[in-house]
Specification:
This is Transcriptional regulator. It comes from Paenibacillus cookii. Helix 1 crosses helix 2 and helix 2 crosses helix 3. The chain contains nine helices and nine strands. The strands form two sheets. It has a seven-stranded mixed beta sheet with strand order 3-9-8-7-4-5-6, sandwiched between helices. The mean pLDDT is about 85. Strand 4, helix 6 and strand 5 form a beta-alpha-beta unit. By secondary structure, the protein is α+β, with helices and mostly antiparallel strands.
Length: about 250
């Protein structure tokens, strides 16, 4: 039983021998009845004394040993076990292992379900951008999360009616010939999903890799800023074909 509690085989044999003896024993007697090698006996006895499992005394210049009574051993091991459990419960992971792989996802319904789940699980921040029709499907969640105290930043391609504090609206015109449908979501600065159309079907990538998350975050801020610039200085930009052409190449 002691062996199961982390004691070595020799330590267990020494305790068993002493516990079965009516009288204290010296090292020579312990060697004789326990089978522990003589060369190891003093080392093993010393460890058992340190662990409080064996009592030591000197009689007529000879060291004698006796075992801690079994009921006290049970009480001691129980108390130590409970203390270890409490310490384990207090421990917190020193470092979270992050899955930094990039996952691919297909099918519109699956992508939408994944975005909805990530939104619902957001704790501190949300950055979301998409076209108007996709935006409206998640708008109630975005508004509820903002009411809960989550920092929400959003961009809609196409006007939507919303009370979100930080919402940029980009109205495409006939010059946006290369503008493609997309969905981008970054949650808690920790996870991102980007979806786009390819050959008429939705495809997405999802990742917690921090380099990718930072790139998508910059991508989001880039789009918001361009939307704000083109909205505020629309008339000026429309009259400067060269700058407008460059802006249209940058956007999305």
């Amino acid at each position: 039983m002691l062996y199961k509690f982390g004691f070595s085989q020799y330590e267990s044999k020494v305790y068993e021998t002493l516990a079965q003896s009516v009288q204290p024993m010296d090292a020579t007697m312990i060697v004789k009845y326990s089978g522990v090698p003589k060369a190891k006996i003093y080392e093993v006895i010393s460890r058992m004394v340190e662990k409080g499992m064996v009592l030591e005394s000197i009689s007529e210049k000879k060291k004698l040993y006796t075992a801690l009574p079994i009921p006290l051993v049970v009480e001691k091991l129980t108390a130590e076990f409970q203390a270890d459990i409490q310490e384990l419960e207090r421990q917190k992971p020193k470092k979270e292992i992050v899955d930094d792989r990039v996952w691919s996802l297909k099918a519109d319904a699956s992508i939408h379900a994944q975005i909805k789940q990530m939104l619902l699980e957001a704790k501190s921040s949300i950055r979301y951008s998409s076209w108007k029709d996709d935006f409206q499907t998640v708008l109630p969640i975005l508004e509820e999360k903002e009411r809960e105290g989550v920092a929400v930043e959003a961009l809609s391609v196409g006007e939507v009616q919303s009370g979100l504090k930080k919402l940029a609206v980009m109205e495409p015109n006939e010059q946006h010939v290369t503008l493609e449908r997309f969905r981008l979501l970054i949650v808690d600065d920790a996870e991102a999903i980007f979806a786009g159309m390819e050959d008429g079907s939705w495809q997405a990538i999802k990742t917690r890799s921090q380099p990718f998350v930072r790139v998508f975050t910059d991508y989001f801020h880039h789009d918001v800023l361009l939307t704000q610039i083109t909205t505020k200085y629309h008339d000026v930009l429309m009259n400067d074909k060269e700058i407008m052409a460059q802006l249209l190449q940058l956007r999305y």
